[in-house]
Write a structure and sequence with these properties.
The complex is a heterodimer of chains A (about 150) and B (about 110).
Chain A lengths: L3 H33 L6 H16 L9 H7 L7 E7 L2 E6 L2 H10 L9 E11 L2 E11 L2 H4 L1
Antiparallel strand pairs in A: 1-2, 1-4, 3-4
Chain B lengths: L3 H32 L2 H18 L5 E5 L4 E6 L2 E6 L6 E4 L4 E6 L2 E6 L1
Classes of the chains: A alpha+beta (about 150), B alpha+beta (about 110).
């Protein structure tokens, strides 16, 4: 039968071995994860594609109607991950998380961020009521975990 | 014949050995999976499909040839690329509903 001191010593040794094991294997896993889990950031391409798609979709109808419903009918947006702002003359519509636009402004002001959204601004010349008008489409995409 | 203490020590050693060896095997398999670039391939494929389907017009059919083990799924506008039936897969949230059908090493994606 083991003494109390012996049991304590045995416990401490076991705990020490276990901590060492966790540290060694945890270190290996952390190094491998950081090396191989590099993400490809496609948000800029995605932003350009979404912007182009919205332009194509909005200009299908004549005259162009800009409101939240029209934007939602063009594409399905996850409102936590994207912010879309479309404007032309007096017409204006937005969808998604407007905080992303603030982050985009911060990026423009050269504020460095570790986890930043992708911001795409596009302008298209369209014919509206017989006059040339400028259709502005701003797309900000978060999707940080999947791209950074 | 071993005494009681000897048997106890042997059992503990055997248990530790099995424990450590199984951890090493799991980590080796996992490192092999990561280093072979399978995770990266799945990520690229999912993102490419998302961009392609977003860009495509209605009723467009996209045919993708790939390895037989690759499974492409779409759930709630999310593209999921799996390597085998038991793989959790890589998922990428997208913007369009698509219909997917598979034939051997070819997947046909139709936009709605």
């Amino acid at each position: 039968m083991k003494s109390k001191k012996g049991q304590l010593g045995h416990g401490i040794t076991w705990l020490w071995k276990f901590i060492m094991l966790v540290l060694v294997f945890g270190g290996v896993v952390a190094v491998i994860v950081s090396h191989y889990s590099k993400q490809v950031d496609v948000r800029n391409i995605e932003g350009a594609v979404v912007s182009r798609k919205l332009y194509e979709c909005l200009t299908l109808n004549s005259p162009i109607e800009i409101n939240k419903e029209t934007l939602q009918s063009c594409l399905t947006f996850d409102e936590n991950e994207i912010y879309v702002n479309v404007s032309m003359n007096e017409q204006f519509a937005e969808i998604g998380d407007s905080h992303l636009a603030i982050l985009c402004e911060a990026i423009e002001n050269k504020i460095r961020m570790k986890k930043y959204p992708s911001c795409t601004t596009s302008q298209y010349h369209v014919l509206y009521e017989g006059k040339s008008s400028l259709l502005n489409i701003f797309v900000a995409i978060r999707k940080i975990e999947k791209n950074l | 014949m071993r005494n009681k203490k000897g048997f106890e020590l042997g059992w503990q050693f055997f248990f530790n050995l099995i424990f450590i060896v199984s951890i090493i095997i799991i980590i080796t398999l996992w490192i092999h999976g990561q280093a072979s670039g399978k995770a990266f391939e799945k990520q690229l494929l999912a993102k490419e499909i998302c961009i392609l389907t977003t860009q495509a017009r209605e009723n467009t059919t996209i045919t993708i040839e790939h390895k037989k083990t690759i499974i492409i799924e779409a759930r709630n506008n999310t593209i999921i690329v799996k390597d085998g039936a038991f793989d959790k897969g890589y998922s990428y949230p997208c913007y369009k509903e698509v219909e997917i059908s598979k034939k051997d090493n070819t997947t046909i994606i139709s936009t709605k």
